Amino acid sequence: MSDVTRPHRTAAVIPAAGRGVRLGPGAPKALRALGGTPMLIHAVRAMASSRAVSLVVVVAPPAEAAEVRLLLGEHALPERTELLVVPGGETRQDSVRAGLDALPPDVTSVLIHDAARPLVPVDTVDSVIEAVRDGAPAVVPALPLADTVKEVEPGKPGEPEPVLGTPERARLRAVQTPQGFDLATLRQAHAAIAVAGEGATDDAGMVERLGVTVVVIPGHEEAFKVTRPLDLVLAEAVLARRRATDGY
User: Fold this and answer.
1) What is the pLDDT of residues 34-46, one digit of tens each?
2) Contact between residue 81 and residue 53 where contact means Cβ atoms under 8 Å apart
3) Nearest C-alpha neighbor of 8 from the set 126, 133, 123
4) Site annotation (Transition state stabilizer): which residues (predicted)?
């Protein structure tokens, strides 16, 4: 079958192997409870709620991969969506690559979604998929910034840092997930771009370094990342409102 007539199939990869130290000691971040249910389950449901997503790959901490498989089996998820759990790597980049390696050959596009963004609305997921299927090789949802941003010379924690510049706020966006990609393009980026240190934290940034155009679509205020204890408080409030008004 030629690429022109090849049907679209979209999968989602959820890297969930991080420890989430900023949330404090305890279980891996993705397994922290939100409204009595692990954040990872909320994130999987968010991806599986889109009828365009037929496969969700969860990249779990290697030591907890078996536990994550059991966890997914204990919670109600759409039957139409195939679920797969694979062990992650040392860095986020390694974990995303492990998820990509697990995808079957008929997948044409992929979403990369943070497990720590458990409340992204399905409309945002669908909008990202639609933009990729319309021909964009890389798509990110994002929001305009409310605060002025300063570029600084990093110093030691707690010490004053000299300001190097003030970017024009109108040109800046706070990027969210899921980020959507033509699968071949993202695989090319992971094969070509080696990032030192902790690895790449943003797959779209890797694609940019190939010289490929990344496009931004409107994000959603409820697609925020649960990173610190205060974020968890906000997420609980959003979830409570959804359950009260939408039967979520």
Assistant:
1) 999 999 999 999 9
2) yes
3) 133
4) 22, 29
Place of tokens 């992929």: 110
Helix-strand-coil split of the chain, %, nearest 5: 35, 20, 45
pTM above 0.70, yes or no: yes
What pLDDT, in 10s, does the model give residues 79-117? 889 999 999 988 889 999 999 999 999 999 999 999 999
Quick one: what percent of the chain has pLDDT higher than 70?
90
Buried b (16+ CB within 10 A) or exposed e, 19-43: ebeebeeeebbbbbebbeebbbbbb
* Burial status of residue 235 (CB atoms within 10 A of its CB: 0-12, 13-18, 19 or more): buried
Q: Which domains does the chain have, with CATH numbers?
A: 10-146+174-246 (3.90.550.10)
Strand 179-182 to 138-144 pairing: antiparallel
Q: What tokens appear for 120 in the block? A: 């992204």
87/59 Cα distance (integer angstroms): 6
Cα distances (angstroms) measured from residue 17 to each of 12, 194, 200: 15, 20, 14
